[in-house]
Structure formats: C-alpha cells, structure tokens
Automatic annotation (TrEMBL):
Gene3D superfamilies: Transcriptional coactivator/pterin dehydratase. GO terms for molecular function: 4-alpha-hydroxytetrahydrobiopterin dehydratase activity. It catalyses: (4aS,6R)-4a-hydroxy-L-erythro-5,6,7,8-tetrahydrobiopterin = (6R)-L-erythro-6,7-dihydrobiopterin + H2O. InterPro entries: PCD_sf (IPR036428), Pterin_deHydtase (IPR001533). CDD domains: PCD_DCoH. It is an enzyme of class 4 (lyase). Keywords: Lyase. Belongs to the pterin-4-alpha-carbinolamine dehydratase family. Its EC number is 4.2.1.96. Pfam families: Pterin_4a. This is Putative pterin-4-alpha-carbinolamine dehydratase. GO terms for biological process: tetrahydrobiopterin biosynthetic process.
Amino acid sequence: MAESKALLDDDSIASALADLTGWERDGDSIVTYAKLDDFVTAIGVVDKVAEDAESVQHHPDIDIRYNSLKFKLSTHSEGGLTAKDTDFAARINQRVSDAGGSTQSRA
C-alpha cells in the first residue's frame, strides 16, 4: 500500500475511481456498498478487512446490515483523500470478491 499521505487532486481521484469497481466519491471520502450471500460471510469480510486495516494502520468506517456492508474511506489526518484510501479500497474490493460478493456505488 502506498505510503504517500499527500492529498489527491480531483483528477487523480477521478482516475483512481475509474479503476475501482463500485466506489464513488462522497465529499472528502470514497464509499462503496458490498453485498454478500449472508450475515456470516459479511462478518467474515469485515474480519479480514479489520486485519488488513490494522496491518497498515488505516481504518475504514464500516456499517453492517445483515449481508450488506458499507465501507467509507478518508485519510482524516490529512483532511481528505490520499493514495492510502484508493489503495485500501482496492484491497477491500478483493476481500469482497474473494468471499463471492460484489461492490456497487449505491445500496
């Protein structure tokens, strides 16, 4: 994951989002909604993402609704979006995909 904490400009954010299935900008954050088969699978994804977040010290906001998850990323210490966010979004997408789920920009 990129170590850069520099804020991304609008063009860089748009370019990164073009490569991130299911993610969209929400002000100074990026957000996605994931659908999994069931609650246990969704919690399994949350567990994996939590382990990943701890390993890189970058923690998403996560909302759990049965088999639906909402992930929101921002680098609060920098006041907006950095490469840490877009890199971690790709990691979240992989975790969701590995569990047989998908991401989308709106619930």
